[in-house]
Specification:
Helix content: 40-55%
Number of strands: 14
Largest sheet: 7 strands, parallel
Structural class: alpha/beta
CATH class of the largest domain: Alpha Beta
Shape: globular
CATH topology of the largest domain: Rossmann fold
Strand content: 5-15%
Radius of gyration: 22 Å
């Protein structure tokens, strides 16, 4: 029997405000559509409208906000499907790019939709249509109206892969009452690290907050076939390729300095840059040219020729191809305040990886990977050059597998506990 939990004052006020703002939402979405920020055919999904039919049987709904977070859900889906092949899955996200890339990487029996704007009418329309048997929130993206009405309709909810640093906690503390109201509706909360657990508890959830780590070590199928792949492989031939992904300006400057040294001993080497934001492609190419490199850009339809020293892969959804192609990779975000990015896609594609000294976002992951030798921390361009030239590929791949093995027990238990909520 479902225990009804009435909304507190803060949540009730939020629901009223979102209801009052409802007439403005379609206008806002149309403006974003004109600027290319919404999907031209599917933007009405954000109003809770869809032409997709709910699959028969039990449906597990998983939500994450952006591309990296959504792609990580594939590992959870694979594990849940393995335990119960009868399940179907609904994945929601908010960004246009996450939808475009995820559509090319859909697991079996999985549908993607955009999460509706958190207006009660849209939320209830969505819930009535999809009628999920379990709602899995991932990372940080929680929406109060959806959490409240899903609970009202007796949908079990959990938060997994939760990540909240001190800066994010400070922002949420201003609306602590609303977060406490939503957190108490979850069956349990699974955090990536101790700091996240402590911050969630400080916001008002004081029980059933566990630390299982990131879900990103869970194996998932990756898309490694891309347009013109055969031509790219042919043009690369036997040349050494190394990769920076996903890159930010500070990572790129270290990489350019390292690549200049590498070219002195290997004049045919190629540095591939995959930016976190593909709109930076032109700026990256300009920066590389200022280092006197010969540069081509995939975003302009260019390939790799005999003179290419730096190749900017400013396209979405193609990192898997480059991880499979490269000798090794520098995982970006480690040389400034970004504080690191996910290393697990590289690991699962057997690409030896390095990272910078700032990695607070994935501290637990890198601690285990560094400890086994599955990744190597580099502090500057000299250490990066040394790591690339001295790399033992077979040894690092073996160490990466050991790191995954160390993390799997807690993740296997998490997936078993999720299945138990719908049995």
């Amino acid at each position: 029997m479902h225990d009804m939990r009435p909304a507190g004052i803060g949540l009730r006020l939020y629901l009223v405000v979102m209801t009052v703002l409802r007439p403005l939402v379609p206008m806002l979405l149309r403006k974003r559509l004109k600027r290319g920020k919404e999907h031209p055919k599917r933007w009405r999904e954000k109003l809770g409208l869809t032409d997709r039919v709910r699959p028969k049987g039990r449906l597990v709904w998983l939500h994450a906000v952006g591309l990296g977070e959504v792609m990580a859900l594939r590992g959870v889906i694979a594990q849940l499907s393995k335990r119960d092949p009868s399940l179907s899955f609904l994945v929601t996200s908010s960004t246009k790019q996450s939808a475009l890339v995820f559509e090319d990487n859909l697991p079996d029996k999985t549908i993607h939709q955009f999460l509706p704007i958190d207006v009660p009418a849209y939320v209830n329309r969505f819930l009535m249509h999809w009628s999920p048997n379990l709602l899995i929130w991932s990372e940080q993206d929680l929406w109060p109206a959806m959490g409240f009405y899903a609970d009202e309709q007796s949908v079990p909810q959990v938060l997994i892969n939760a990540r909240m640093n001190d800066a994010a906690f400070s922002e949420r503390r201003l609306v602590k009452n609303i977060y406490r109201d939503i957190y108490r509706r979850f069956q349990f909360i699974s955090a990536q690290d101790d700091r996240t657990r402590d911050n969630i508890c400080a916001l008002g959830r004081v029980d059933d907050v566990r630390v299982d780590g990131s879900i990103k070590p869970l194996p998932a199928a990756f898309q490694t076939d891309i347009k013109n792949a055969a031509a790219l492989r042919s043009s690369i031939g036997s040349r050494m390729v190394w990769l920076v992904c996903p890159s930010h300006p500070a990572d790129e400057q270290v990489a350019f300095a390292a690549h200049r040294d590498i070219l002195e001993t290997d004049p045919t080497a190629i540095l591939v840059i995959i930016p976190r934001n593909v709109d930076r492609g032109a700026a990256i190419a300009h920066a590389a040219q200022s280092w006197q490199f010969s540069v081509n850009r995939r975003g302009l339809g260019q390939g790799i020729d005999t003179s290419t020293q730096v190749f900017v892969a400013d396209t979405y959804g193609e990192a898997g191809f480059w991880y499979k192609t490269a000798k090794c990779a520098l995982i970006g975000g480690g040389f400034d305040a970004i504080e690191g990015h996910n290393p697990w896609e590289a690991v699962h594609l057997n690409c030896p990886a390095f990272h910078g000294p700032n990695f607070a976002n994935f501290e637990r992951d890198y601690h285990i990977l560094d400890q086994t030798g599955g990744t190597i921390m580099v502090r500057d361009k000299d250490e990066l050059v040394g790591a690339i030239t001295a790399i033992d590929v077979i040894k690092m791949r073996r160490a990466q597998g050991q790191a995954v093995d160390l993390l799997m027990p807690s993740l296997n238990k998490l997936c078993s506990d999720l299945i138990a909520l719908i049995e």
